[in-house]
């Protein structure tokens, strides 16, 4: 059974493991994730199946804008619609907390994520050169609710 929960002391270790598996050297550390717990402007969802963390995502609310910070799905659970469910959860939260638009940055080379965002109604709005520490450019996307 699929369950949704917030980021909390019980699941943060497993979320950090998922981060490492998905983002390698760019992963957020467990300490950094712990610092996010309970912050009023941060909205995280953790997806669990049979007590295993299979995906998570979060955004930061700045005025009426949602800045998507991370979204990741365990390798063996990809292409099953879980990232889409995480985004749907963001869109439901938008209604509840008064968000009018979402924005995000994604590596130019990350075609899986770019396809996901485009499928979920985000529009490409530009490139920021050398955004990442390894020199890769990022694409900026927006979605108006
Ligand atoms: C990007 C990511 C979150 C997608 O998760 P997912 O659960 O597999 O996504 P979904 O199953 O909801 O896919 C929705 C759509 O996204 C697109 N998509 C997802 N993975 C794709 C891939 N490998 N190649 C091409 N398109 C892809 C497709 O349009 C897909 O729809 P379809 O399956 O009907 O064709 C996942 O690949 C991941 O965790 N990647 C590593 C972390 C990451 O890069 N996060 C994004 C940082 S900005």
In short:
The protein is an alpha+beta fold.
What this model shows, in words?
It is a single chain. The chain has a domain at 2-102: Aminopeptidase (3-Layer(aba) Sandwich), CATH 3.40.630. It is built from 4 helices and 7 strands; from the N terminus they run βααβββαβαββ. The protein has helices spanning 12-23, 30-36, 82-97, 111-119, and strands at residues 2-5, 42-49, 52-62, 65-73, 101-107, 123-128, 138-144. The site of coenzyme A has 19 residues, from β4, α3 and α4.
SSE topology:
Layout: E1 2-5, H1 12-23, H2 30-36, E2 42-49, E3 52-62, E4 65-73, H3 82-97, E5 101-107, H4 111-119, E6 123-128, E7 138-144
Parallel strand pairs: 4-5
Antiparallel strand pairs: 1-2, 2-3, 3-4, 5-7, 6-7
Output the keywords.
4 helices; alpha+beta; binds coenzyme A; 145 residues; Aminopeptidase
């Amino acid at each position: 059974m699929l369950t949704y929960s917030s980021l909390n002391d019980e699941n943060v270790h497993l979320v950090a493991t998922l981060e490492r598996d998905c983002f390698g050297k760019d992963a957020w550390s467990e300490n950094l994730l712990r610092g996010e717990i309970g912050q009023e402007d941060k909205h995280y969802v953790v997806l669990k199946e049979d007590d295993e963390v299979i995906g998570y995502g979060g955004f930061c609310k700045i005025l009426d804008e949602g800045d998507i910070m991370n979204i990741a799905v365990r390798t063996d659970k990809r292409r099953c619609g879980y990232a889409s469910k995480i985004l749907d959860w963001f869109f439901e939260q938008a209604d509840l907390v008064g968000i009018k638009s979402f924005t995000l940055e994604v590596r130019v080379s990350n075609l899986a994520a770019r396809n996901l965002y485009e499928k979920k109604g985000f529009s490409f709005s530009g490139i920021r050169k050398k955004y990442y520490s390894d020199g890769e450019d990022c694409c900026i996307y927006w979605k108006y609710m």
